[in-house]
Amino acid sequence: MISKSKRSWIEINLSTLINNLNIYVRSIPASTQIMAVVKADAYGHGDGIIAGFLSDNGVHNFAVSNIDEAIHIRKAGVEGQVLILGYIPINRAEELLEYDITQALLSEEYAEALAKKNLPIKCQFAIDTGMRRIGLNADNPDKCEVVIRKYADCFQLNGLFTHLCVADSNEPNSVEFTKIQIRKFEEIVNRIKDLNLPYCHCMNSAGGLWHSSALSSFIRLGIILYGLKPDYMNTLPDGIEPVLSWKSVVSMVKEVKIGDTIGYGRTFTVKHPMTIATIPTGYADGYSRLLSNKGMVLINGHRAPIVGRVCMDQMMVDVTGISDVEIGTEAVLLGKSGNLSITADDLAHLYGTIGYEIICGISKRVERVYIT
Ligand SMILES: *Cc1c(COP(=O)(O)O)cnc(C)c1O
């Protein structure tokens, strides 16, 4: 029993990961390939192990957010293309070559600064089709073309990419905006066809499922690979499940009486006799304090609501009426218990964020346990 030896841990199910990948791949056109997005430590799941496992299962392209992440997965033995989607300091350009990493060119100025290094770096130009985050502005395709051609020879330019900002929404305005983004991207891709760039891609998880472009050779698959929804309102293909479960244990059980208050700030007042369990997981583990008096854990197949404020390292939950709760009883923070389940999407929805933020925010002090 894992719970006998641990305080707070996540179980990462590698079979679920591959199952999600396979279901996703079956839902998209056969010509499209997968670039697994393993930034932010593979959304908290552990980038070395996740990328390594995906690589053993036929994925050969990976995306990360910065150079330390890129080097980390290379050192873990991951081969194939590793693309950095964002900024790296120019003075780290040599490491791109050393580790055979592909860098995004964020703007003309950024390309110019990197070109001064005079290194044959693999690069892909970011194109801004409407998000206004990074990239050459696609509203001026002539300029984009000139800049792309200018730098095609300074580097080993092998692709272009853009990012969709409302692909997870089916509201008519959003659908229209996504279509426009894809059209703007395709226009640039068509103009530089003669450069034969093999990696032109515009799809995230949501785009890949709900939009299509014949000119996107890759889908940058992130959140759905990990079994969560891009947006709370989305419905995922059948069978896609969260890869991680977060568990802790009961550290103490006590009876409280009417009039007692629970936790910092005395935000919860006991109105009837209750049984309270303490769980040794808190906001320093990445369990948000915004879930104070809002969240819940699952114990023995029952819901145990959080009472009072989530502390740094502990929280208190109401286990009144739940039998067999004692020191060491498992508490499920994310995952299944009996017939009940809580996903990161559900929990996020309770306090106005998204599942992405919860899974990326689980602290490193929470042990990662891999299962299949
Ligand atoms: C994070 C990211 C992705 C993956 O997005 P998901 O919604 O997790 O699929 C794809 N492309 C870029 C540029 C990103 O930053």
Bound molecules: pyridoxal-5'-phosphate
What are the low-pLDDT stretches, counting only 5+ consecutive residues below 50? none
Using DSSP, what is the number of strands?
A: 21
The structural class is alpha/beta
Terminal residue distance: 16 Å
What's the gyration radius in Å? 23 Å
Major sheet summary line? 9 strands, parallel
Number of helices: 11
Shape, principal axes of CA atoms: elongated
Query: What number is the mean pLDDT?
Result: 97
| Fraction of helical residues | 25-40%
What percent of residues are in strands?
25-35%
Secondary structure layout plus pairing:
Blueprint lengths: L7 E6 H13 L6 E5 L1 H5 L3 H10 L4 E4 L2 H9 L5 E4 L8 H6 L3 E4 L2 H8 L6 E7 L7 E2 L3 H12 L3 E7 L9 H20 L7 E3 L3 H6 L7 E4 L22 E6 L2 E5 L4 E2 L5 E2 L4 E6 L16 E4 L2 E4 L9 E4 L11 E8 L2 E3 L1 H7 L4 H6 L6 E5 L1
Parallel strand pairs: 1-21, 2-3, 2-10, 3-4, 4-5, 5-6, 6-7, 6-8, 8-9
Antiparallel strand pairs: 1-11, 11-19, 12-15, 13-14, 15-18, 16-17, 19-20
Helix pairs in contact: 3-4
Bound molecules: pyridoxal-5'-phosphate (PLP).
